[in-house]
């Protein structure tokens, strides 16, 4: 066998070994693996299932919210890989009613870290690496009436991105819908990206009541940003402006966004931090 053939055989063998290791090390979930953590007894039943989405409904009426103002923290926390994330999260969430977090690692144990202030936690994971899960989570001071989780695969790396939607009953008989998204990233022609966005807006279109749509939209080029803005405008959302605005940008485009419908913005700001590769978004809203 020539040296060239030996080299090719060795490279193919290495590729197969690495590929096999990747397949063994990673576990994919579609629909996403959804866990509901609570310090209070609330039971949920599966009401809807598809290849990419699961929806659950409380088996009893959850508490109706008697407040008209809400404070939120929206933050991609980078799997807790950056020093000081615990202190920053505690500080920023002190006055919040809802936390919309992306890139949560199961190794962060947020269900224990934050359970005193946020007793309700919907955690949806798209994949596990050596039994360490990663996904999106919505933590709240009040119990959701329903929650849904959906996943869309990245076309190149095949690791799904996840979205979580939760509803909370209001005094007027309607409910507040909160949609927490982490959108497809590694795709130049945004086919899967648009699919994930469209699925989210299809859910939104059926909701009667105020809506918060937020998260890491991975809008790193103008085409992606335009898709988001067009859909948001079509469904009568208002984009939130921040002061100061120090959101993470890529190619001069912001990656993280908040859109609202049926709510007024009382305050919206962002903060610089070294506790993640994304800067957190803080917002105070009031029902219209």
UniProtKB/TrEMBL annotation:
Keyword Nuclease appears in the UniProt entry: yes
One Pfam family, short name: Exo_endo_phos
UniProt KW 4Fe-4S keyword: no
Sequence intervals crossing the membrane: 7-29
Key words, A-Z: Endonuclease, Hydrolase, Membrane, Nuclease, Transmembrane, Transmembrane helix
Domain Endonuclease/exonuclease/phosphatase, residue spans: 74-278
GO molecular function: endonuclease activity
NCBIfam families to which the protein is assigned, alphabetical: PRK05421.1-2, PRK05421.1-4
Name of the molecule in the record: Endonuclease/exonuclease/phosphatase (EEP) superfamily protein YafD
Native source species: Frederiksenia canicola
Taxonomic lineage of the native organism: Bacteria, Pseudomonadati, Pseudomonadota, Gammaproteobacteria, Pasteurellales
